[in-house]
Amino acid sequence: MNIATSPHSVLGFALEAMKHTPDARLRTVMDALTRHLHAFVQEVKLTEEEFEQALEFIVAIGHATGDKKNEVVLAADILGISSVVALQNNQDPHGESPAALLGPFWRANSPACAPGDNIARSGTPGIPLAVTGTVRNAGGQPVAGATVDVWQASPIGLYENQDPTQENMNLRGRFATDAEGRFHFRSVRPAGYPVPTDGPCGVLLRAQRRHPNRPAHLHFMVSKPDHKVLITQVFADDDENLETDPTFGVTRRLIGRFALAPDGQTATLQYDFQLEPGEMKFPRPPIP
Asked: Which pTM value belongs to this model?
């Protein structure tokens, strides 16, 4: 008779109820998740009030998600889960991942651009930035015709969907590599910015006395058929928040040299990417 008599007895009944799940991977994942959740509740001796607060937080991140922001992704980011998934699934032979979390602001179908185009389309003020790089495969050969999708925040720390003064798809663009695997484009030097703090994730950060400021960076998504999609970020080497990124996304490999000219009026970034063989599978856009 499946009657729970103690907190410890419930787990066995729950696992037994799920054991006939036809999808083997779903069965494995839910079995592990259920065991860890039960262990967590008992380890911290979760109170009924705390349980209610946890459920309210989950509901709140759903309500705070919309066309301008994905609070669910943000919650995964500030808990470090997004970075763990990215690092775990994108290790290279040298032991350090070239990948980083997607973040809550990627949009699909950004404008297709010609080599050298400027993605700062709204008269965006800031230090002009020239970006160059090469895409190679696992053997070191250049990859022609790869798509380099780039997006970034403005020099005041806002993505275009957050800022009514920027036109749609500003500071976003897709570039194709040439026969030598090279790409180049122009933009403005990004600034660091705080993750959104007007929702439940902001409440949590304040309760933990954590700052919300991400180091300045450019987002990249590099793809080519028969290669695994590389989702990554390149961080400014002079940013004061490199070691305290609230989303835990910075690795040594992802720090690029955002070099200022001697007169301080322009900047350059040179950064290369490597694609691994695999399926070209894109993530779901966090926002439209």
From this structure: 0.90
AA letter at 246 = P
Q: Does an H or E element contain 222, and which? A: strand 217-223
Q: Is 48 exposed, middle or buried (0-12, 13-18, 19+ CB in 10 A)?
A: exposed
- The sign of the dihedral angle between the CA atoms of 98, 101, 105, 107 is positive
267 Cβ partners below 8 Å, 6+ apart? Answer: 127, 128, 129, 130, 189, 258, 259, 260, 261
Is residue 68 helix, strand or coil?
A: coil
Q: Locate all alpha helices (DSSP H) within the chain, ordered by sequence.
A: 9-18, 24-43, 48-63, 71-78, 81-88, 200-207
Residue pLDDT, tens place only, 84-114: 999 888 876 666 778 999 998 999 999 999 9
The predicted-structure confidence for 206-223, as pLDDT tens digits, reads as follows 999 999 999 999 999 999
Residues in contact with 92: Cβ distance below 8 Å, sequence separation at least 6, in sequence order:
98, 274, 276
| Sign of the torsion formed by the C-alpha atoms of 14, 20, 22 and 27 | positive
d(CA 105, CA 166): 15
Q: How far is CA 99 from CA 17, 125, 162, 194, in A?
A: 38, 29, 25, 21
**Longest alpha-carbon distance in the chain:** 79
Q: How far apart are CA 219 and CA 160, in angstroms?
A: 14
- Predicted local distance difference test score (pLDDT) of residue 94: 62
Burial 90-126 (b: 16+ CB within 10 A, else e): beeeeeebbbbbbbbbbbeebeebeeebbbbbeebeb
Tokens 């065991």 belong to residue:
35
